[in-house]
């Protein structure tokens, strides 16, 4: 054991959202690691970055949503955390004719739009005006005496005021490079609770990749191995499935050529959206290997799968995304019967590494996108999975 190995193990910190633990370990930055590659790694031609500004009536935008020409990112769950009072005061702002902050839409080559910024606001207004399962009544208003009113209960002139409200929309032209679209999103993502990287990818992606990741995280094998993480409120389940997909499709060497995790995952999201790059047959192979990995992980580690589990403790830590990506890829190579036979040796090797190898602990704790740390944790998982052979 080296002097570095003898250092104190990094503290495990679980992510918290809206006052509740999420079951996922936080990935921290380490000043000692190499600086991550910028999202935009080359100078872009400003002529390619086109954002135009238009004004739409709310009625027009709601019609676009109903006609499916404006997409509100299906399965996006974050909007549900808005409290009734927050939703009601948004509606009250329109009734008081207070201008709302500008919205951002991304236009695709077929003339359809996706909401880049303003998803929660538009979801709220659509639910109030057009109803459906997410409809609500006004509650906790500050100025207007319309407590417990639905849209249909408002005076006709107030309904008209809502419909005629003018919303300023910045539209990102489809000719803008995908990487720049992501960067624009990150720059304008300054709402009450900023979106995380996977939530941004979800909003910017197309239906095909969203359905692939949803199917992966809906598998019983995934939920058994992760203690029912599917449907995670911050989409960490989808990010983990995407990380597996990225390294399964591209390999570690491809990552090391351009070692920036967000850019890597954005590229693979685009690949999953294009059947010509990842055909349906390849997707079926992806599902099969993912199912195998989840089954094997639970067979070996049980309720400790993808969690730090050093020797001398039986406490169950939150799920670690770096462990998930490296071990899930490693375990696609083995049959269950083989792993069952070698289970004790593999678990011993993995736990010993988490106890004594400080370099490994760094690689799964902080600055996990660093090229050297990515390489080391994948090599370590592959080595430990061979224990007992």
Number of helices: 15
How many strands appear in the DSSP assignment? 7
| Strand order across the largest sheet | 3-7-5-6-4
Overall tally of structural domains? 2
Q: Uncertain runs with pLDDT below 50, 5 residues or more?
A: 1-6, 37-41
Strand content: 5-15%
Main β-sheet: number of strands, strand sense, barrel status?
A: 5 strands, mixed
Give the overall silhouette: elongated
- Judged by helices, strands and strand pairing, the structural class is alpha/beta
Rg of Cα set = 24 Å
Average pLDDT level: 88
- Give the SSE order as H and E letters: EEEHEHEEHHEHHHHHHHHHHH
Distance between the termini: 24 Å
Kindly state the percentage of residues in helix.
40-55%
Organism: Streptomyces hoynatensis
Domain GmrSD restriction endonucleases N-terminal: 65-202
InterPro entries: GmrSD_N (IPR004919)
Protein name: DUF262 domain-containing protein
Question: What would the keywords be for this entry?
Answer:
single chain; 389 residues; alpha/beta; 2 domains; 5-stranded mixed beta sheet; two-stranded antiparallel ribbon; 7 strands; 48% helix; 9% strand; elongated; disordered N terminus; GmrSD_N
